[in-house]
Amino acid sequence: MADPAFTALDPLADSVELTRALCDIPSVSGDERTVADAIEEFLRGSAHLEVVRHGNSVVARTRLGRERRVVIAGHIDTVPINDNVPSRLIPADVSDEGIEMLWGRGTVDMKGGVAVQLRLARDLVDPSADITWIWYDNEEVSAELNGLGVLAAAHPELVVGDFAILGEPSNSTIEGGCNGSVRIEVRTFGRRAHSARAWMGENAIHAIAPVLQRLAEFEPATVTVEGLDYREGLNAVGISGGVAGNVIPDECMVHINYRFAPNRSSEQAIAWLREYFDGFDVTVVDRSEGARPGLDAALAREFVAAVGTEPAPKYGWTDVARFSALGIPAVNFGPGDPSLAHADDERVSTAQIRECERSLRAWLSHDDG
Amino acid sequence: MADPAFTALDPLADSVELTRALCDIPSVSGDERTVADAIEEFLRGSAHLEVVRHGNSVVARTRLGRERRVVIAGHIDTVPINDNVPSRLIPADVSDEGIEMLWGRGTVDMKGGVAVQLRLARDLVDPSADITWIWYDNEEVSAELNGLGVLAAAHPELVVGDFAILGEPSNSTIEGGCNGSVRIEVRTFGRRAHSARAWMGENAIHAIAPVLQRLAEFEPATVTVEGLDYREGLNAVGISGGVAGNVIPDECMVHINYRFAPNRSSEQAIAWLREYFDGFDVTVVDRSEGARPGLDAALAREFVAAVGTEPAPKYGWTDVARFSALGIPAVNFGPGDPSLAHADDERVSTAQIRECERSLRAWLSHDDG
């Protein structure tokens, strides 16, 4: 057991202090118990919250009989640490950015978002909508371990609402929906021969030239879905082939990742891929549905108005797609630059953490006047 | 020490029996001592031969003061055994080919050729030309270990002659010269990015499409050199690239093998490759000079006439190129189908062994009447 004196979260800490404290409890996927304990402890004793623990996921919800319910969720695991824990606070006068930055694993993805949520969960005793807060484990690993998916399967009654906000890093602006993703392997086949007698064989690497040609020629579309522009992408992410330095190769494989706008299902995307690579052997290895931005939901429109900045599309795949599949419109909204997620120089502007907290607090307090 | 009773070669055995006996003394590259001992023993006591042992190579030569000297050579090592030793003689009535076949490692590459040479070395006490017989080790491994090269460097005075015959398998016909070979790596570079934001990167795999296109479009020339047609070949023998399933790759490499006719040097072949792949990063990883067929040498013309079949080009690289570099015109002439060399079902027609022996014996005895 870890030392409770070290892992306890100060009930009076602000969201930046909570971010630091959460980062300083290492919680690489599969090792979230200590941080889940600290979160549960932080919430117990708040009379307005019903707290449920499931594995290393924690759910806390209000039951105020409001007309509408918002789900606000975040994952508590991180990718592996690389000498970047404990976190370090770099003051504005010495930081490259000229503003105060918090460095360390999880600062962006996504202890900052979790900290904002924890602060608000305790503070908002009388919110404008009922709120279901969900903190879950195993987001950074394979889909079947995902804590949100596990929770929704075990306790579907806990994962319900009219709108969901996922605290993934989005520079504290609203990023709606996400692209879908399909991975395929395209193969060509040939016949081995000694390269001194190449005419007795058939070169599978040469045969894959038209596949690379089609990839190079592909012009990615920008697709507008509910007012947001999604940029698609079709890319080789791997290629392999060859037997030995003197053998005509009999097989070549290109591994391709297709990111498609959420106006299409993965089924439609796969049909398009089979058409685009017609004449070649295509194997689907992986698929994730996209999620429409969900910005036409009433609560979403109000939230967008409250935040006051233009919503943007989310390109990377996130668990908003999981909410979308459950019939809950969902957006990403959290502090941090998503391009710094998983980076060794992962860092977040503390001002963004505060800005994110302020926006959510204002919106969820609105009706209270 | 191996049992001498087992490893001794019968001085009266014919060339087929000698082939079997040689195959039954395993001599994978690096382990040729026993077979070299047996060869040396087999030759000692022949008054017409001066025998020199150098490492596991054996040289035996006549010093009859003939006007011309022929070098006849063969390597005594094999590629690794794969349950195909000892050799097995399959009679004509049960063999797939309908002729008597000798199966086993080395039957083709090239104990058959060595056996013919050993039989003739003992028998030809008064040949038409002086003969230098060379049996050498380590042909099947890296070039710097090659016993013929080692011998020529240590005892250049032993490796001289007007014409050379290398007993490599050639279906007992004359195969002249050999193609040269160059291996290069062609690389493209790009910039990594998350595949969800592909436009922030540059895809090195897509960038290699024109290289594969040029390979696919290449039409191999057939080049006539001293009357023999050499087929060239330009082939990808390997390709690799990719970082992870969600990363735009920043590097891709195609490994290419160019086989070129012996009218060009490797230097010229490399210059041509740099031109053909102009605009791409090209690294030379390996080069071997080709060898002109040498069929215009007087001895070669007589030998061709004596064998009586049309000479053919040799496509694979052999040590005739080493003789060629020493200024000695050289051809391949040995029993066995070269496409069965190194195969697990390696096997030779015993008739071819006898035919090869007969041709060489007739030619080298010719002037004796």
From TrEMBL, chains A, B:
Its cofactor is Zn(2+); Co(2+). Pathway: Amino-acid biosynthesis; L-lysine biosynthesis via DAP pathway; LL-2,6-diaminopimelate from (S)-tetrahydrodipicolinate (succinylase route): step 3/3. GO terms for biological process: diaminopimelate biosynthetic process; L-arginine biosynthetic process; lysine biosynthetic process via diaminopimelate. SUPFAM superfamilies: Bacterial exopeptidase dimerisation domain (SSF55031), Zn-dependent exopeptidases (SSF53187). Residues 180-278 form the Peptidase M20 dimerisation domain. Its EC number is 3.5.1.18. One of its GO terms (molecular function) is acetylornithine deacetylase activity. Pfam families: M20_dimer, Peptidase_M20. It is an enzyme of class 3 (hydrolase). It catalyses: N-succinyl-(2S,6S)-2,6-diaminopimelate + H2O = (2S,6S)-2,6-diaminopimelate + succinate. InterPro entries: Bact_exopeptidase_dim_dom, Peptidase_M20, Peptidase_M20_dimer, Peptidase_M20A, Succinyl-DAP_deSuclase_DapE. Keywords: Amino-acid biosynthesis, Cobalt, Diaminopimelate biosynthesis, Hydrolase, Lysine biosynthesis, Metal-binding, Zinc. PANTHER family: ACETYLORNITHINE DEACETYLASE (PTHR43808), N-ACETYL-L-CITRULLINE DEACETYLASE (PTHR43808:SF31). NCBIfam families: dapE-gram_pos (TIGR01900). Homodimer. This is Succinyl-diaminopimelate desuccinylase. It comes from Mycetocola reblochoni. The lineage of its organism: Bacteria, Bacillati, Actinomycetota, Actinomycetes, Micrococcales.
